[in-house]
Amino acid sequence: MTVYLLRHGETEYNARWRYLGKTDQPLSSKGREELARAGFSPEVVYVSPLCRTAQTAGILFPEAEQRIVPDFSEMDFGIFEGRSADEMADDLAYRQWVDGGCLGPIPEGESKDAFSARTCAAFAALLDGAVAAGEDPLVIVAHGGTQMAVLERYGRPHRDFYAWPARNGGGYVLDASSWEQERTLTVLRTVQYKKGGSV
């Protein structure tokens, strides 16, 4: 089985390097315009509850049915939401979080471990069901955090959470043939679905 683990297109907060988690922000005009239809058409695409993933899936896979997976929502950035690192340079709570490797709990938000736990549980349940049903490929359009959490836990070669960033409208193609035996995913290649450079 092949798994496509993709990130949504660009939003205004993405373009301005602002933390974007639970805010239900749509794609920007640029984000919509630069995305290109993918070169294949799955029957189903799994998305998070946030509109930027549904909008992206609608452009990449316009004929696919969309099914929402609630726990694929992006990390809850709490009091950091909508703010940039530069704006928070003197914010004590932000400095403490960064100095801790961006791993600890965010005030009014999530910790990296809590986020990864809910995301990976949802992913594993979805993939187990897809394997049992013979669904191939499994296509997910979610968030950068979703990709990083899943690949840190299951990806091979192994890399840490923050070593798995993907650009907007891009992501990873994974081989899930060892999933049932080893609970691992082999990274085959990266993809980017943008006009003038689509894969």
Helix and strand topology:
Elements: E1 2-7, H1 12-15, H2 29-34, E2 44-47, H3 51-60, E3 65-68, H4 92-99, H5 112-133, E4 138-142, H6 144-154, E5 155-156, E6 170-175, H7 179-182, E7 185-192
Parallel strand pairs: 1-4, 2-3, 2-4, 5-7
Antiparallel strand pairs: 1-6, 6-7
Helix pairs in contact: 5-6
Counting helices, strands and paired strands, the structural category is: alpha/beta
Number of helices: 7
Strand content: 15-25%
| Integer-rounded radius of gyration | 16 Å
Shape: globular
Characteristics:
7 helices; 7 strands; 7-stranded mixed β-sheet; alpha/beta; 199 residues
Explain what you see.
The protein is α/β, with parallel strands linked by helices and about 200 residues long. Helices cover about 35% and strands about 20% of the residues. The chain has 7 helices and 7 strands; from the N terminus they run βααβαβααβαββαβ. It has helices at about 10-15, 30-35, 50-60, 90-100, 110-135, 145-155, 180; strands spanning about 1-5, 45, 65-70, 140, 155, 170-175, 185-190. Strands 3-2-4-1-6-7-5 form a 7-stranded mixed sheet. Helix 3 links the parallel strand 2 (about 45) and strand 3. Helix 5 (about 110-135) crosses helix 6. The longest helix is centred in the middle third of the chain and has 22 residues, at about 110-135. The radius of gyration is 16 Å and the shape is globular. The model has no long low-confidence stretch (mean pLDDT about 95).
